């Protein structure tokens, strides 16, 4: 899409009567950014565009896919690959916006829907590359561009007169008022996003901007997580009162105790109505290591779209176990495995690269 975008209306108040819907609720579209930054996958970049093509091919069968490309050359290359992969169709649209990286879950806005009318709004968090990398200026603009294209008024949360930093991968919601997150990501001084913000400050922001009534705090994330504790590698809502959560069976693995602690917390937690949360265990794959680096391989990084769930797999015996569990959880959706053994070298997989735009009619 080449037209100059009008900037969305920016508000520093709160989006009254709006809430963040669950990922399984109807989508208008999925947003993602086409890969080009080779240093995110050093030595493994060549297969990455083809993984994207497979993801887009499966998504575009069910909903519109909004593909962000950095320029005309990148769009031409993407179109060529998608055509070869039988993934180029009327449901695929392109937007020429420069990016630093491709992790749209984290750089994009959080879309909200109005509880009383078919309207969207968007929360535009500040993005600072996980408080770790210096190159994020293009990515910090992506959420506003998405909001403008979705005709969603943009709200910008503030704390002590400063923009609040948050990534979409650090939260997960049930659409009814309960949110999952981790202490490691939001409360640690390592990769600290918002100095001075405490637990109750985050809970206030979530209440004011996302319609959240109840926050469930988990502990630490998985080994190898470059984001320092994103919840979308750990535990995910699959219904208003049910969470799937990854478990490690090897007591010698560094994930073993942190994941046991997380499930203890979940089993002691309640939803917004005071009802205990049900939990379903997902296995972890065997450690995925490349160039001596432990990578954040997790089956919890699946993405729920209209009619389909895309699940990362790693050529591991537990692939089939995880797929069968998710097939039981989502009986009305196709469960599609996507090989992510190369993609995870960029420290993320399917949920990290996608961002849903809910259908306003919901």
Largest sheet: 5 strands, mixed
| Tally of separate helices | 10
Write down the overall mean pLDDT.
Answer: 95
Q: Could you say which overall geometry the principal axes of the C-alpha atoms support?
A: globular
Descriptive notes:
24% of the residues lie in helices and 25% in strands. With 362 residues, it is α/β, with parallel strands linked by helices. The protein has a single domain, classed as L-arginine/glycine Amidinotransferase, Chain A, CATH 3.75.10. A hairpin with a 2-residue loop joins strand 19 and strand 20. The longest helix has 13 residues. The mean pLDDT is 95.
Question: How is this fold's topology laid out?
Answer:
Blueprint: E1 10-11, E2 18-19, E3 27-33, H1 48-59, E4 64-69, H2 72-84, E5 92-96, H3 104-107, E6 110-114, E7 120-123, H4 129-132, H5 139-149, E8 154-155, E9 158-159, E10 162-163, E11 172-173, E12 178-182, H6 183-186, H7 199-210, E13 214-218, E14 235-239, E15 242-247, H8 256-267, E16 278-283, E17 289-290, E18 293-294, E19 303-305, E20 308-313, H9 318-329, E21 334-339, H10 350-353, E22 355-358
Parallel strand pairs: 1-8, 3-4, 4-5, 7-8, 12-13, 15-16, 20-21
Antiparallel strand pairs: 2-6, 3-22, 6-7, 9-10, 11-12, 14-15, 17-18, 19-20
What attributes characterize this protein structure?
five-stranded mixed β-sheet, L-arginine/glycine Amidinotransferase, Chain A, 10 helices, 22 strands, four-stranded mixed β-sheet, alpha/beta, globular, 362 residues
Quick overview of this protein structure:
The protein is α/β, with parallel strands linked by helices and about 350 residues long.
């Amino acid at each position: 899409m080449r037209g100059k975008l009008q900037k969305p209306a920016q508000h520093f108040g709160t989006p009254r009567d709006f809430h963040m819907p669950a990922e399984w609720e109807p989508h208008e579209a999925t947003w993602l950014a086409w890969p080009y930054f080779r240093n995110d996958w050093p030595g493994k970049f060549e297969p990455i565009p083809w993984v994207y093509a497979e993801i887009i091919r499966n998504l575009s069968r069910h909903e519109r896919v909004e593909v962000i490309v950095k320029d005309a050359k990148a769009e031409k290359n993407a179109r060529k690959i998608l055509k070869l992969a039988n993934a180029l169709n009327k449901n695929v649209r392109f937007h020429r916006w420069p990016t630093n990286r491709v992790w749209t879950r984290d750089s994009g806005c959080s879309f909200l829907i109005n509880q009383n009318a078919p309207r969207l709004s968007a929360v535009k968090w500040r993005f600072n590359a996980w408080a770790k990398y210096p190159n994020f200026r293009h990515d910090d603009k992506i959420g506003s561009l998405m909001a403008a294209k979705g005709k969603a008024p943009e709200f910008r949360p503030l704390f002590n007169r400063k923009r609040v930093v948050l990534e979409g991968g650090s939260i997960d919601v049930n659409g009814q008022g309960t949110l999952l997150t981790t202490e490691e990501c939001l409360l640690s001084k390592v990769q600290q996003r918002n100095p001075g913000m405490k637990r109750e400050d985050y809970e206030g922001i979530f209440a004011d901007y996302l319609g959240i009534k109840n926050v469930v705090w988990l502990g630490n994330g998985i080994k190898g997580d470059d984001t320092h504790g994103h919840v979308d590698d750990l535990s995910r809502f699959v219904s208003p009162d049910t969470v799937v959560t990854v478990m490690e069976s090897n007591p010698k693995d560094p994930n073993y105790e942190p994941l046991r602690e997380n499930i203890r917390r979940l089993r002691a937690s309640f939803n917004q109505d005071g009802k205990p949360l049900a939990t379903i265990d997902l296995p972890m794959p065997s450690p995925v290591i490349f160039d001596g680096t432990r990578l954040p391989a997790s089956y919890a990084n699946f993405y729920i779209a209209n009619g389909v769930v895309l699940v990362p797999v790693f050529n591991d015996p537990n692939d089939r176990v995880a797929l069968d569990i998710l097939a039981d959880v989502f009986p009305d959706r196709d469960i599609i495995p996507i090989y992510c053994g190369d993609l995870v070298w960029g420290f993320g997989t399917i949920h990290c690269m996608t961002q849903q735009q809910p259908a306003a009619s919901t």
